[in-house]
Amino acid sequence: MTSMLPEEGEYLTTGWEPGVPSTDSLVRQAVDAHVSWARTLTAASRGGFTEGPGWCAGRGGGASALLNWAIVTSPPLDWASTVGAISAAYPEGVSAIVVSPFPTPDLTGHGLGLVGHPPLMFRPTSTVTAVPTSPIEVRQATTHAELQDAQRILVEGYPMPDMADLPPGDFYRPEVVDGSTRVYVGYHDGVPVATSAAHSAAGVTVVENVAVLESARGRGAGAALTWAATTRWPDQGAVLIASDDGQPVYERLGFLRIVRWTAWLRP
C-alpha cells in the first residue's frame, strides 16, 4: 500500500487556490459560476465589479442589496481583513448581500447582520424527472418589452421593493442576454406572471431570479420557470441557492441538497 503521508516540504492543495480549475469540486464550480453571474449582472447594469484575494464584490448600480452581491471565494485566513475589504468596495448607504460558501464566525461586530444559511442545491445531468406541467406559457425573453416584463415580475414577485424605483429595463438591459445568460418569462393568458434566469459558467448552469406574482401562485409557474432555466444547457448540471421554502419544489425537479452556505447583509 502506497503511503498517503506527504513528503517533507510538499504542498497540499486545498482546492481553493487561484490556479485550481473550477472542476476540482462541485462547490468550487458553484462558487466560480456565481462569481461569473455577479460579474455579468454588474456589467449589464453598468455598475462596478471589484475583486481581491479570496473575495469579489459586484455593485449593480442601485441601493438594493439584491443588486449588490459579494462572494467569499476562498477560506479567509483573516475574516476581519476580508470583510473590511468587501465593505470598502461599496459606497456609504449601498447595502449588499455577502455570501460565504464557508462557515463564518460571528460577523456582527464587523457591521454585518446574519441573513441565514441557504442551501446550495445541484441537479446532475443524469437525473430523470417528469417535466412539470403548467398552464403557463414559457418564453425566452429576447426583446426589450419581454425583459421589462421579467424585471417587473422580479420586483413584484420576489419581492424586491427597494428596486421599485428603477426605470423599466434598467436591470435586465439587452446586454444581459448577449452572452451566456438567458432570461425567461411565463405568461398566463398573455399576461406576464413569472420569471427566471439561467447563466452558464464554470461548466454548470446557475439558476437564479425565480419569481412568481402572488396572483399566479399554485399553478406550477415556479416549477415551469425553474425547469426552463435548469435545462437551457442540457449537457451540464445546474446549481442554485435555495430558500428553505423553495427546497421542496427544487427537489421535485431533481435537485439535491449539497451544503448550506451563509449569507450576511451589509446594511
Poorly predicted spans: none
Distance between the termini: 55 Å
CATH topology-level fold name of the largest domain: Aminopeptidase
- H/E element string? HEEEHEEEEHEEEHEHEE
Largest sheet: 7 strands, mixed
Describe this structure in words.
This protein has two domains: about 20-120, no CATH class; about 125-260, Gcn5-related N-acetyltransferase (GNAT) (Aminopeptidase), CATH 3.40.630. Helices cover about 20% and strands about 30% of the residues. The model has no long low-confidence stretch (mean pLDDT about 90). The protein is built from five helices and 13 strands. It has helices at about 25-45, 80-90, 145-155, 220-230, 245-250, and strands at about 50, 55-60, 70, 95-100, 115, 120-125, 135-140, 180-190, 190-200, 205-210, 240, 255-260, 260-265. The N and C termini lie far apart (about 55 Å). The longest helix is centred in the N-terminal third of the chain and has 19 residues, at about 25-45. It is an alpha+beta fold. The radius of gyration is 19 Å and the shape is globular.
